[in-house]
Amino acid sequence: MYDGHVGAVGSAAAAAVSAYPSYSEHHTGWPIDIGDGGGACSFEPCFADQPAATWASANAHRFGFVIRYPAGAEADTGYSFEPWHLRYVGVDAATEIHDQGITLEEFTTRHSPN
Fold it and tell me: Domain D-alanyl-D-alanine carboxypeptidase-like core, which positions (predicted)?
């Protein structure tokens, strides 16, 4: 995927939408990518308007998941908005992140032992 993005938009732009090979958090087993079964806007920001994404945005925290790369948080996360990319963090953390409208990075900083 990364190489495809590099070929289409160049290295700098590819880094904002795709992890370098072996650097995706998918290898950890904590995230999942969701779809709507019909392929509408798959892996595109417009997926946020699809029923599966609106449900996930409203309810994923109840099951311990957060939208890993939320809209407008690119400076914090380092990645463009990905409404299909969910990350498991546990129900308590997910609920706090959802209710406060913060990123996983902000949550981690607030809860660091320092």
Answer: 9-90
pTM above 0.90, yes or no: no
8 touches 43 (CB < 8 A)? no
Task: Tell me, yes or no, whether 15 lies in a domain.
Answer: no
Catalytic residue check, 82? yes
Provide the residue-wise pLDDT of the chain in tens; the chain has 114 residues: 666 666 777 776 666 666 666 667 878 889 999 998 877 788 888 999 999 999 999 999 999 999 999 999 999 998 889 999 999 999 999 999 999 999 999 999 999 886
Out of 44, 74, 82, 106, which one is annotated catalytic?
A: 82
CA 72 → CA 7, 23, 77, distances in Å? 26, 22, 10
